[in-house]
Design brief:
Blueprint (H helix, E strand, L loop, with lengths): L1 E4 L4 E2 L3 H11 L29 E5 L28
Antiparallel strand pairs: 1-2, 1-3
C-alpha cells in the first residue's frame, strides 16, 4: 500500500507512526485482507508526508503475478492504475 500525491509520487506507510497509533488504538486490520460478500472493516494507516503534499489517493498492491491479470488490481494490464480516494 502506498499514498500517491498529485505529482504521482508515492509514500510508504510510517512503521514508527503506525506502531505509535496502534499502541494507543489497538492493531489495525490489513487493508489487503480478503472480504466475502457483504463484509467490511475499517482501518487506519499512518503516513509521514511533507506538509505541502496534497494526497491524490491510496494504491493497494497485491504483488506482481497474478495481479497484472486481475481486473481491478492497481498494476493490471487491463486498465489505468486503481486509486482509492481518501476522505
Amino acid at each position: 500500500m502506498s499514498l500517491v500525491d498529485q505529482q504521482d509520487r508515492t509514500y510508504s506507510p510510517s512503521a514508527d507512526g503506525q506502531a505509535a497509533y496502534e499502541s494507543i488504538n489497538g492493531t489495525q486490520p490489513d487493508i489487503r485482507n480478503v472480504l466475502g460478500p457483504g463484509e467490511s472493516f475499517t482501518t487506519t494507516a499512518i503516513f509521514d508526508i511533507p506538509a505541502d503534499i496534497e494526497p491524490a489517493g491510496l494504491k493497494v498492491d497485491h504483488g506482481v503475478w497474478p495481479g497484472r491479470l486481475i481486473i481491478g488490481e492497481s498494476s493490471s494490464f487491463f486498465h489505468k492504475r486503481t486509486l482509492l480516494m481518501l476522505k
